[in-house]
Every structure is written in C-alpha cells, then in structure tokens.
TrEMBL record:
Cofactor(s) needed for function: Zn(2+); Mn(2+); Fe(2+)
Residue sites binding Fe cation per the record: H113
GO BP annotations, alphabetical order: negative regulation of DNA-templated transcription; regulation of secondary metabolite biosynthetic process
List of residues binding Zn(2+): C81, C84, C121, C124
One MF term in the entry's GO annotations: zinc ion binding
Source species of the chain: Gloeothece citriformis (strain PCC 7424)
Name of the featured protein: Ferric uptake regulator, Fur family
Cofactor binding note from Swiss-Prot or TrEMBL: Binds 1 zinc ion per subunit. Binds 1 Mn(2+) or Fe(2+) ion per subunit.
Keywords: DNA-binding, Iron, Metal-binding, Repressor, Transcription, Transcription regulation, Zinc
Pfam families linked: FUR
Record lineage: Bacteria, Bacillati, Cyanobacteriota, Cyanophyceae, Oscillatoriophycideae
Family label: Belongs to the Fur family.
InterPro entries per UniProt: FUR (IPR002481), Fur_C (IPR043135), WH-like_DNA-bd_sf (IPR036388), WH_DNA-bd_sf (IPR036390)
Amino acid sequence: MKTQRTRSQEKIFHLLKTLDSSISAQDLYIELRKRKQNIGLATVYRSLDALKLQGVVQVRTLSTGESLYSLVQQDQHHLTCVNCGQSVLIDECPVHDLEDRLEKSHHFKVYYHTLEFFGLCDRCQGMTGPLEG
C-alpha cells in the first residue's frame, strides 16, 4: 500500500533527492527557505519523521547528537572520531547476512541499517599522545 504524502513531505523528498550528502533538519529548513519553499521548522521535523516511517528517509545521529537525514539508497557505514567529529565512509558491511536472517526469523521488514565505529582519527591520536590500553 502506497502512502499518500503531504505537499510538505513531497517538497522535502524532492529536495533530498537533489542532495549528494546527508543534511540536518535545520540546514534542510534553511535550504527550503532559500528555494522559496515556505515550510516551518516544526513541519520539516514532522515531515522527516513521516518519511522515515514510510521507509524512504534514513537518519544518522552523530556523536554530537545532531541528526542527519538522507534518502534511503544504500546502507552506509562510518568511522567517526569522537574528538574532531570527522566521519569516514567505509564500504565494507559485515551485517547483510544478519539482516536477511533477522527479517526471516522475526518477520520484520528492514528499511536500512547503519553501522558506526567511534574512536580517534590519526590526527587526534597524535594530539593526545600514545593511547593507553
């Protein structure tokens, strides 16, 4: 069953289609204003939530607590530095088989998954000195 989208949801969906990276709700709101789309910030958040529930938008929460939104295209995995916030996209995914098994065993439709490792990048490791283990 296809869900009917509101005009605000459609505008946000189409804007996300034009972007090549994830974006925060605040920045999405600013971008919509630049494009003369008069949508309030609360409506942006509600629309993003509705699109997420439809399985077309994914959200990634950074170590800073900021949420970034993008269209569900492919699973993305990252190495994220907890000091400087640098995030590096990694191509490997060790959980695709697990995802398939979970869908079958729990009768659960997975829209997407995220995998993120948190630590210190090379530069930040050099600034803090040798790591103690």
